[in-house]
Amino acid sequence: MRFSMPRKLSPLDPQRLDNQICFAVYSAAHAFNRVYKPLLDRLGLTYPQYLVMLVLWERDDVPVRDIGERLFLDSGTLTPLLKRLEAAHLVKRTRSSEDERQVLIALTPQGHALKEKARAVPQSILAASDCSVSELVAMKDEIVALRDRLNAVIGE
Amino acid sequence: MRFSMPRKLSPLDPQRLDNQICFAVYSAAHAFNRVYKPLLDRLGLTYPQYLVMLVLWERDDVPVRDIGERLFLDSGTLTPLLKRLEAAHLVKRTRSSEDERQVLIALTPQGHALKEKARAVPQSILAASDCSVSELVAMKDEIVALRDRLNAVIGE
DNA sequence: TCACATTTAATTGTTCGCAATTGAATGTAC
DNA sequence: GTACATTCAATTGCGAACAATTAAATGTGA
């Protein structure tokens, strides 16, 4: 009987941290968050709040549910976050008259105005990425495709 | 004087949510987390706890600081997490006798044993990714390179 | 109409993640 | 060898993230 190699030493060990794409994604997400932090501090936003604002700058007066579907977040996350945005006078929460179950989220004038102040953010991120736009777009598309395959599995 | 196109309609608008690689990474990280959840529930671990166990399965009896450097996490995150792993009898926390500032984290026999039970996890993730190993490795390397460039900017 | 299911947000409780601070141990300069 | 700075983990406080539950509004079927 032969001894097997200790798996720990194999560079291809699927249990090694550095071989896991999930950790690459996880740690990259945190790295992005740290780069965004000082930029968003000036706007008075956290990163998840910035994502909500991006959604609303495209179209506002939408129910909480629409924002959640766009960002893959549920009401347990969004309700308190939106209340903080309301406290910051960036959005207004109004219960829909047509369907009293829905709460519609609309931008305030300050909320709209913040879009202009936020325009410099994406280019700062691009600079920090130290990478061509075409490379970033290609990576983004690959990551989105992977995300969508993962989400498809969850729905089973 | 001409009117400019409303930026909102441009598919290349850098302020559009779907054009941002950071959101791709952010949402992919959450998708991974949701795929991992049922697998790790059986092991009694959360995803960040699983990452700590991966580090310790490679080498244990290491200070908290080493785990933090490996995972890009600080003591504010790790201290309570490690206390929960200790409460689950997976690790033991001991203050170093050579340097009383350090707390060394060692696996218990149950902590070591869990590695075998966790061996099926990476292949389940691979299956959910619905992607060839070589493609995943290529993506992982790109994402790690991006993460490291972002982290380099933070240190400035 | 009336029972029942579905939809929608809000709520509660647990766990991350990080900034900022604290306190103890260690290292360094003079 | 005594000030001073540095290192390390722990702590506090706040904002996500999500599971599970609740409550109200709406939809559906008999």
List the helices and strands and how they pair.
Two copies of one chain form a homodimer.
Chain A: H1 21-41, H2 47-58, E1 62-63, H3 64-71, H4 75-87, E2 91-95, E3 103-107, H5 109-117, H6 121-129, H7 133-154
Antiparallel strand pairs in A: 1-3, 2-3
Helix pairs in contact in A: 1-6
Chain A binds a DNA duplex (30 and 30 nucleotides) through residues 30, 33-34, 37, 46-49, 63-65, 73-81, 84, 95, 99-103.
Please supply descriptive tags for the structure shown above.
mainly alpha; DNA-binding; 7 helices; Arc Repressor Mutant, subunit A; globular; homodimer; 3 strands; 156 residues
Explained architecture:
The structure is a homodimer of 156-residue chains. The first copy, chain A, is 60% helix and 8% strand. Chain A is mostly helical and 156 residues long. The first copy, chain A, folds into 2 domains: 30-118, Winged helix-like DNA-binding domain superfamily/Winged helix DNA-binding domain (Arc Repressor Mutant, subunit A, Orthogonal Bundle), CATH 1.10.10.10; 119-149. A 3-stranded antiparallel beta sheet of chain A has the order 1-3-2. In chain A, a hairpin with a 7-residue loop joins strand 2 and strand 3. The radius of gyration of chain A is 20 Å and the shape is globular. The structure holds a DNA duplex (30 and 30 nucleotides).
